[in-house]
Amino acid sequence: xxxxxxxxxxxFLALDFDDDALSALGARLRRLRAxxxxxxxxxxxxxxxxxTLRFLGDVTPTxxxxxxxxxxxxxxxxxxxxxxxxxxxxxxxxxxPSRPRVIACLVExxxxxxxxxxxxxACAVQIGLNREARPFKGHITLGRTRDALPRGAALPxxxxxxxxxxxxxxxxxxxxxxxxxxxTALRSFSLGSHL
Length: 195
Hints:
- By secondary structure, the chain is α+β, with helices and mostly antiparallel strands.
- Helices cover 24% and strands 33% of the residues.
- A hairpin with a 6-residue loop joins strand 8 and strand 9.
C-alpha cells in the first residue's frame, strides 16, 4: 500500500554510571532543588541521570538495530574501557552562563570519552543521520531552564571535581511525558566496570 508511514522512535546513546556517581549527582540535584529559583527549572529525575554520547532523534526500528550493531562492533576496538574514570565538575550553567539552556555537571575532556563520542557520531552518519553541527562536550544534565532565569540566580559555590565511573553504554528510547521523559533501554553494552 502506498503512503504507509514507517513508525519512528526517539532515541539517544548514553553512558550510565555506577552507584557512587549517581549518589554524588543525586546530592547535587537535591542541593540545587533547594535554591530560591528552583521552581523555574524542569529537574531531571535521579533515575534518568546520564551522559549523552549522541542524540539520534526520530529514527526507525531498522536504523536503531543498524546503529546498535555498528556501535557494538566499533566498541570492541576500544581498549581499556573497564578502567574508564571521568572527572565531573560541580553544576554549571550550560552552554554559557549568560544564556543557559541547562544546569549540568561538565565532564572534563578525556581521550577515551572523545573516542566513544567519535564512534557514536560515525555510527549515526552510517545509518543516514546528518553529522552533528556542534562539537561534543560531555555533560550530565541536572535540569532544563523553562524561561530566562531570575536576575541574580546563582549556583552553589563549589569547585570540587568528582571522579565518576561509567558502567555501561545504553541505547535508549525517550518518550516525552508531561511528568518528565521516560527512558527505556533498547540495548546495553557493558564496560566491565562492576565495582
